[in-house]
Design goal:
With 511 residues, the chain is mainly α. The protein has 20 helices and no strands. Helices cover 82% and strands 0% of the residues.
């Protein structure tokens, strides 16, 4: 190819944009939204599920944990499959499974049937999630991609805040199964739109790494299980799963480094931008993991809000996150990925500090301002860090790269819930009077149920102090993430356009 023709090809490639790309983004956001809303509305529905299905605490815990285990365990495998067989195909298959399993869950007549539905939903979610981000980076070029990623992450925030409100409304007018039935029309709409609007994309044909898949599934499930169970069972009850996690994940790493066609390119961790983004995301998701749980209890049991008023109280966080998602996308173009990530993380740490300053008498506006600051930091930091991580991954491995991003965040989130939850519980119990009832010393909900004004007042003060300690630990984790990003994310760029990568390959061939 002559230099003139190559220049012409490069110019044409850069100018060529999918005319349906913004409609495709709507489909991807719908697919993501159905996952986020489902998990958030479920927490609101658990009390009614417990009564109707005669489900005990252990069964309810399994309703939540079985989804997390299956979802986290399959992410790397489904990301690899999407690169191999087609990202649209895998996403649509996931939506079909998720919608069908939602029907099963909606009309479940026993806790076991509901858990089975949640397991299938976890499989569907694992097929959907990596495909959405990998399709996004193949449809949008590097100029528009920061805005698209910001919208994609913004939808998650919207679902996190809007889910409980929607769940409260549904439960007020219908039965608990309506929270699952809601998923069906959204999934059906996303499937129809995917076939009508979305192009298929996949990586180069390569053999499927079946041993790698098996090792990753067992290792990841063992790790997440250990994290979930450790706070209640300790080392004595989790040492077997911890040992299994170490053995299988080490075996997985050895397999991926030695095989000719690895499922996950572990050499990516030699790239300091990828490593810095990964560890930063782990710590940020660790820090934010207990946010909803902590503030929900604070607003309901300390400030005395109703469930719907509690959900609406999260509005400042949602609005702030959405606004700064959009602002961050523009700043990435002007300042670069690393500065925006660092600014966002510092603001995020400031939000954690503001939340740590809340007391039992703070009131709505202090909490609203603190949540708005936190939302601003998350809105700036998360899309920029995700963009940097994806920018270090070859375009032909976009699916498994997206899965790595999701797995990193899931692991950080699970670890955060376990560790920060333990900090909260330990500090709260230690702050309660020794003569308080056992139920009141275990949780603030147990204290409120007693109806004893002295116990409730002590519980409100103890919980506020425990929450402050937990948010200080959360802020410290974000500051550590900021230091890591400062040193390792030098030279980070937004993910490169696939067309540009192809043109570079063509240029190398021409030379």
């Amino acid at each position: 190819m002559t230099a003139g023709k190559l220049t012409e090809a490069l110019t044409a490639s850069a100018a060529q944009r999918n005319p349906k790309r913004w409609l495709i983004l709507v489909v991807l956001c719908l697919a993501t939204l159905v996952l986020v809303i489902d998990n958030m509305v479920l927490t609101v529905a658990l009390p009614e599920i417990a009564i109707d299905l005669h489900a005990g605490p252990q069964a309810l815990q399994w309703v939540i944990d079985c989804y997390i285990l299956v979802f986290a365990g399959l992410l790397l495998t489904t990301g690899s499959l999407s690169d191999r067989f087609g990202r649209r195909l895998v996403m649509v298959l996931g939506l079909v499974l998720f919608g069908a399993a939602s029907l099963l869950a909606a009309y479940a007549t026993s806790a076991g049937m509901l858990i089975a539905g949640r397991v299938i939903m976890g499989i569907g979610g694992a097929l959907i999630m990596p495909s959405t981000l990998s399709i996004l980076i193949t449809v949008f070029d590097e100029d528009e991609r920061p805005k698209a990623i910001a919208a994609w992450t913004g939808v998650s925030v919207l679902g996190m805040v809007g889910g409980p409100v929607l769940g409260g409304v549904l439960l007020e007018h219908f039965w608990w199964g309506a929270v699952f039935l809601l998923n069906v029309p959204i999934a059906a709409l996303a499937i129809a739109a995917a076939f009508g609007l979305m192009p298929e994309s996949k990586g180069p044909a390569r053999p499927t790494d079946l041993p790698g898949m098996a090792l990753s599934i067992v290792g990841t499930v063992s790790l997440v299980w250990s994290i979930i169970e450790f706070p209640s069972k300790g080392l004595a009850g989790t040492w077997v799963s911890i040992a299994a996690a170490v053995i299988f994940l080490v075996a997985f790493a050895i397999r991926e480094l030695k095989t000719e066609h690895p499922m996950v390119p572990l050499q990516l961790f030699r790239n300091r931008v990828f490593t810095g983004s990964s560890f930063s995301l782990v710590l940020v998701t660790f820090a934010n993991a207990g946010l909803s749980l902590l503030l929900t209890q604070y607003l309901q049991f300390v400030l005395g809000y109703s469930p719907i008023k509690t959900a609406l109280a999260f509005t400042p966080l949602a609005i702030s996150a959405l606004l700064f998602n959009g602002l961050g996308a523009g700043l990435v173009q002007k300042l670069g990925v690393r500065p925006v990530t660092l600014i966002g993380m510092l603001v995020l740490a400031g939000g954690s500090g503001a939340l740590a300053a809340l007391t039992a008498d703070s009131g709505f506006w202090a909490a609203a301002l603190a949540m708005a600051v936190l939302g601003a930091g998350a809105g700036l930091a998360m899309p920029a860090a995700i963009g940097a991580l994806m920018g270090a991954i070859p375009a032909e491995q976009a699916g498994v790269g997206s899965a790595l991003n999701d797995t990193i965040q899931q692991t950080g989130g699970a670890l955060g819930v376990a560790v920060l939850g333990a900090v909260l519980a330990g500090t709260y119990t230690g702050g309660m009077p020794s003569d308080a009832p056992a139920a009141a010393r275990d949780s603030i909900a147990g204290a409120v149920v007693t109806g004893d004004n002295a116990v409730v007042t002590a519980a409100r003060d103890a919980f506020s102090h425990a929450m402050s300690t937990t948010f200080l630990a959360s802020g410290a984790a974000v500051l550590v993430a900021t230091v890591i990003a400062f040193f390792l994310m030098k030279g980070a760029k937004a993910v490169a356009a696939p067309e540009a990568i192809e043109a570079e390959a063509e240029l190398a061939e021409a030379l």
